[in-house]
Amino acid sequence: MKLIAGNWKMFKGPRETREFCEAFRVPEGVDAVLCPPYVSLAAAVESGHTVFAQNVHWAEDGAFTGEVSAPMLRELGVAGAIVGHSERRQYFGETDETVARRIVAALEHGLRVIACVGESLEERQAGQMELVLRLQVEAIGDAAGAHEGLVVAYEPIWAIGTGETATPDQAREAHALIKGLLDVPVLYGGSVKTDNAAELLSQEGVDGALVGGASLDVESFTAICRAAANLSSS
Ligand code: PEP
């Protein structure tokens, strides 16, 4: 079964979250996950949908202003967390080391994890895509191994929120590389939309998608989930 996760980033407070969740029906045959901002997690959990946070701290508690721990998320009924999204790496100083610490703590506390990796345009153009992915994936693998709760998301930074997507060949190549380093399911992320979802999701080694912009609209997110469900059943 393919995993489709909607990363809402800093969109949708509790009211909009409730509206989305009431309207959203998960098509049969897909593992659909909603990732709202922290303040909307409770509203999403109450709807009965599967809910992940967008980050998680490594400590159980402590003097870490602005952070949220894995036991706190578990208490709320949250099932998992995204870790190491490129926006966290780019704007909030996330490193391979902090990503690894967050992943280990989350898995130890029974959360599922979507760990994000991906190269920038400059790195790809400089021929460093393989090196960058290797370093990022090895940092995750060395810390957590091929844990059953772990999924990696390949998100080329140049394709996030830009309308650019990796070609099917680029996605297949990157997913094969990642799977060769760490034997876990690998999601594709980067401008997945209703009109390109089926083609991307049907590539060998693409086990699902991490969807940003198109996950904010219930109809487009449902259509992407349906495309995944159809492929799982075919
Ligand atoms: C993301 O934020 O993980 C993402 C892939 O965004 P978008 O689908 O908008 O490119």
Could you state the oligomeric state of the chains shown?
A: single chain
The description of the largest β-sheet is:
8 strands, parallel, barrel
Q: Which spans have pLDDT < 50 for at least 5 consecutive residues? A: none
The residue-averaged pLDDT reads 97
Listing every helix as H and every strand as E from the N terminus to the C terminus, the arrangement reads EHEHEHEHHEHHEHEHEH
Q: Could you please describe the fold and organization of this structure?
A:
It is a single chain. This protein has helices at residues 14-23, 41-46, 70-76, 86-91, 96-108, 121-125, 129-144, 168-181, 197-201, 218-233; strands at 2-7, 30-35, 50-53, 80-83, 112-117, 150-154, 186-189, 208-211. It is an alpha/beta fold and 234 residues long. It is built from ten helices and eight strands. The mean pLDDT is 97. The chain has an eight-stranded parallel barrel, surrounded by four helices. The structure holds phosphoenolpyruvate (PEP).
Write the layout of secondary structure elements.
Layout: E1 2-7, H1 14-23, E2 30-35, H2 41-46, E3 50-53, H3 70-76, E4 80-83, H4 86-91, H5 96-108, E5 112-117, H6 121-125, H7 129-144, E6 150-154, H8 168-181, E7 186-189, H9 197-201, E8 208-211, H10 218-233
Parallel strand pairs: 1-2, 1-8, 2-3, 3-4, 4-5, 5-6, 6-7, 7-8
Helix pairs in contact: 5-7, 7-8
Residues 7, 155, 160-161, 189-192, 210-214 line the site of phosphoenolpyruvate.
Give a brief description.
With 234 residues, this protein is of the alpha/beta class.
Q: What characteristics describe this protein?
A:
binds phosphoenolpyruvate; 234 residues; alpha/beta; 10 helices; single chain; eight-stranded parallel barrel; globular
